[in-house]
Amino acid sequence: STLLVIDSVVVSSHPGGYRASGYLHADLAFTADSLDRLPDKPFDIHITSRDRRFDLVSVFLPSVENLTGDMVADVQLSGTPSEPHLDGFAYLKNGRLKYFDLVDTIYTDSAAAIMRDNEIIINGIQAFVRDKHQGNRKSFVNIDGTITVLSLSQLAYDLDVSIPREFPFAYELEDIKGVVEGDMRVEGESPP
Fold first, then answer.
1. Residue 119's closest CA among 142, 96, 145?
2. CB atoms within 10 A of CB 53
3. What does pTM read for this prediction?
């Protein structure tokens, strides 16, 4: 493997920007027998970002059609791929999330995640859809809990999801519509 030292990388994505510095080990050999490019060796990378559009999100989350909002993040990622450590935060204001199969856009006025050691702590994210059948009344979902980063390829979810009143949903390609209400717990390793 090769030690890559990142003095400063800046990626501009109008209107946002991403910056990174630090180091990591990587296998850059074109003739390697494996696609495992990150050996289990120490890394330490500092990433900051500020953006309003997330055009690449569908590469990582194929079910997401569109994600926008005012996002600020500052994360220190260290450790090894099998035992990563995170320290930092990510904030999203005026968020809009559109899934490919669902008719309605999901909104949030503000959402935050704090990262400590290997946990992503979600404390009171409130999202909503506008119910067209109820005069555009907001129907809310509340999310609390943690996502533990067991490794760079393995997450463990421990989330409480509360839907206090009818939350409508409709699929674009099928004649499937409904409402959901109640409490749910999302537990387990990725994908949940």
1. 145
2. 15
3. 0.83
